[in-house]
Please model this.
Amino acid sequence: MAESTDATVEEKEVSSEAVSVDTDGFGASAMGDEVVLDVKDLRTHFTTRWGTVKAVDGVSYHVKRGETLGIVGESGSGKSVTALSLMRLVPSPPGNIVGGEVVLNGRNLLDLSEGEMTSVRGGEISMILQDPMQALNPVFSIENQVGEAIKIHQKLKGEALWDKVVDSLRKVRIPAPETRAKDYPHQLSGGMRQRVVGAIGISSSPAVIIADEPTTSLDVTIQAAYLRLLRQIQQEEGVGIIFITHDFGIVAKMCDRVAVMYAGRIVEVADVRTIFNEPLHEYTKALISSVPKLEEKTGRLPQIEGQPPLLYNLPAGDAFAPRSTLTFTPEDAARRPPLVEVKPDHWVQLSKSSVADYDKFADMMPAEDSE
Amino acid sequence: MTTAENVTIQDAPGVNPNADAIISIRNLRKWYQVGGGFMGFGDKIYLKAVDDVSFDIERNKTFGLVGESGCGKTTTLKLLLGLETPTAGNIYYEGEDVATMSKAGKSEFRRSVQAVFQDPWSSLNPRMRVRSIVGEPLEIATTMTKGQIATRVGDLLSETGLNPYQANLYPHEFSGGQRQRIGIARALALNPKVIALDEPVSALDVSIRAQIMNLLVDLQEEHGLAYLLVAHNLATVRYMCHDMAVMYLGVVQESGETEAIFNNPMHIYTNALVSAALPSHPDIQREEFLLPGEVVSPINPPPGDVFMTRTPLEVDPNHKWANERPPLVEKEPGHWVVETPWSMAADAGLKVELTGHEGV
Model:
């Protein structure tokens, strides 16, 4: 270990923005047990000509202060719609939040009026989107766009507004923020643009930031710098982050807890080490093992057969059963599997068709009619 | 200012084509003129997308090109496919220079080098049925009858894991992974020897990526294919590639066997890329080496080592390699790196150790 400490010191010297960041992925940044966001049984459905699409079908999770929750899933698993539902930005029609609660700082966001919601969006809860090119308006200056959110939520103007804009840009480590603020988006590089989007996100000191694949369009080195920055901001501000991604590498690097989504439902939630070391659901296991590893040359990758299901035509019971390699009877998969806390803080959608260790936990299954 | 006519040819991995390799690329350059030179006056300004790139693709093996956006890896792939004409340099196919091939030789080369693209949503014509998409190369380049083509399309579809009965469907009726299989079937139609893969899995869902990567590996074994893989995901490169090259600003900085490079990355840039790649387990915590500055524009890059503006070490502006392009040096057998006083990771005290989490 002594060698690696030396290496760390030297790295610090050569890196352009040497900063002390706790890069430990687990729990270190979570501050206490204060739950800032509690989502209960959220259901968002879309009405389409093929039938009702249950994009989010009974999803529950919470985020603590200063904690990063990763929501992992494939396209169509409902992870992005979950985020849009929290912000009440689901396009309606065809989308509808048909049930559940989103409790932020003690208030249910789903009960608020549209006017009240406007002050929450970008204020108490904000969002960093995937593509910084599309998230910024090309005809307004950076000052204007960062200032807009501050003007609305903090009612600042004039010099105070300018100071706050520069301060926000400085927080996301944009060099020479006073000059950069006068620039337009096309004058900045991709990494800088994504930092501006981050500056807008944190400008009003939100309790929760939703980051929806914010680094997929960035190069690896810029991605690394941006992820490090997010972590730093989180430690300074104590903000809870919901990180939506399909990349287990980002989960390993950034998240304290992980929720794995499949077909509109959460199949497993646990802290990040449990998810990597002792996953219980077959889908979680398969997802982790099917990713090639940077650290070693692996043999042939195990692969998940089949395709993700179509959401308007879901099997009645366990949605993962058609892709599961376990042996089970049709009756085992017929019941809609409940999310059960099998170990402290480790929840899994329990069914014989998707959990190999089902027999160990069989007595934990709630009675059929309790759903 | 140097112009395309008087570029100096340097000895990077052997100036002569490697006769054993299926593809041998030597001193390949692609410069785009972006300004100047009006009516023959003034200095011409070039964007040097690819500037002196040499490597070999061995038979039945995969060669990986990695680097950040703008490093010229995709331009190199386009040059191989003949979608761009090189400004200078040569591409040798089975030891023969493609530029001086006979017409018949060229069309044989074109048939033997095929491509699979990144985005299966935009690389398949939405108005064509699968049988026409996969059968088109056969219609154009062979004398097969309609019946023979239909049989061959059916075979190709089953070989790539699709159902021959799906030949009458349109691309929109397929999922992303299935579409990529159609693209692979199309690339296989003419029994190529080389397939250029441009980020073949990055647009696909995680659970589908392993399926496609394994399919590519199986097809390589069955048909003795050679691949040129362009990717930014280093884990994918380590899984798929036998040899690789790391590019920065149009220039190869380090090349060699994939395992040699991952086990002992020598160039600072390679170390920076590897350190920034995401870990496969939360217990693996690598410190990232952030390089100073940002990627500079490939328009009028430094005349010497292109990396000198990004190195954390001090650069002597009077040094030979600050004014002249440094060559690749063979540091270990088969492991080449651009060596200057400011490019070696060992001199900067950097070393990425890629260890599994059990070892931590």
About this structure: Residues 268 and 348 of chain A are 4 Å apart (CA to CA). Residues 1-30 of chain A have pLDDT under 50 and may be disordered. The two ends of chain A are 51 Å apart (CA to CA). Chain A touches chain B through 56 residues (CB under 8 Å).
